[in-house]
Amino acid sequence: MVDELERQRPDVTCLISCTTDTGLAEARRLFPHWLVFRWPLDFSWTVRRTLRRIRPHLIVLAESEWWPNFLLAARCFGIPVVAANVRFSPRTQQRYRRFARLAHSWLQCIDSFLVQTHDYADALAACGIERQRIQVTGSVKYDGNLGDRSDPRVVELKRQFGISEEDVVWVGGSTQPEEEAAILDCYSALQHRYPQLRLILVPRHAERFDEVALQLAEQGIAYVRRTQLPEPRSIGRSVILVDTIGELSAIWGLADIAFVGGSLDGRRGGQNMIEPASFGAAVLFGPHTWNFRETVRQLLASQAACVVRDAADMLHVVQRLLDSPDERRRLGEAARQLVQSQQGASRRVVECLLPFLPSSRASQDEAA
């Protein structure tokens, strides 16, 4: 969205806020030319002080980051607020219905809801949001994906990881403890039968890197950490444990088979499966993917992904894909075509933002 806004309105200054240390580090990497700062804690005095210092023309909130004191302060200062790329899952809807009166007063402070799907639009309307404040723009997560295996970042990772053309690469990305255990059990069962199989494991949270390294060692699985890579030719068949932040989007470009984490344990609702799909990987995920319900529906309807219910199911599906290169390629190509067909949401979102911005050139210290 920021790239598209810069293209359509190069005179606009953007300020980027984040809530976590990881988010701040990634935002500073992605936006070195903009100010990146920590989102204020949701106390009246902190949000008022932040808004007085920035004095933005427009606030754009991502997905469902709707903090009540911030919204009320923005309304008090007369600053329009747009919620973009909105997801409104059944679980979120239940929470808002539990506090319907309070929630309705907060949501009235948002001028426009730009939602990913018609289902989310219906859910917001059921919570009392007027239809004229809701527009379906699609998911911006389809835009901005690398999707090109010849991208320099992907090519360099392939070299560093010592991956050959004969290798079949399985990437487990954004994984949680139960998923890492399932992946490693499957890998242990398959590695000797399929010597061309390479495994790259990318845990979701940085604080668990050491824990996963210990798990690999306890199972007697040869591995190397991303931060301690030797020369590529000396890696051999070792599992690569990615103990860095911000590389997964390019690592998906190495995958022939991609398991997307946060989807097996029933607590997190899945992570972004659009990135591996854009590269044409054979995409797998667990049954708990409510964060990406519409994306999953489209992938499954296009026969472009597989759901694995548990570790045994994962073993069965991965083995089938290893035995059938044609099925791997068919799944991957169907996924890639679906992603390409869904792109364009960022442009639609920015077109909805433009009416909220001043028509004249903003000064350098004014922000959107």
Characterization of this structure:
- This protein has 368 residues and is of the alpha/beta class.
- The chain folds into two domains: 2-143 and 344-356, Rossmann fold (3-Layer(aba) Sandwich); 152-342, Glycogen Phosphorylase B (Rossmann fold), CATH 3.40.50.
- The protein is 42% helix and 15% strand.
- It has 16 helices and 13 strands.
- The strands form three sheets. A seven-stranded parallel β-sheet has the order 9-10-8-7-11-12-13, sandwiched between helices. A four-stranded parallel β-sheet has the order 3-4-5-6, sandwiched between helices.
- Helix 3 (44-54) packs across helix 4 and helix 9 crosses helix 14.
- The protein starts with a helix and ends in a 15-residue tail after the last helix.
- Mean pLDDT is 92; it is low at 362-366.
What is the CATH architecture annotation of the largest domain?
Answer: 3-Layer(aba) Sandwich
CATH class of the largest domain: Alpha Beta
Number of helices: 16
Total beta strand runs? 13
Largest sheet: 7 strands, parallel
Strand order of the largest sheet: 9-10-8-7-11-12-13
Shape: globular
- CATH topology name of the largest domain, in short, is Rossmann fold
H/E element sequence: HEHEHEHEHHEHEHEHEHEEHEHEHEHHH
Q: Structural class of the secondary structure composition?
A: alpha/beta
Helix content: 40-55%
Oligomeric assembly: single chain
- Amino-to-carboxy terminus distance: 12 Å
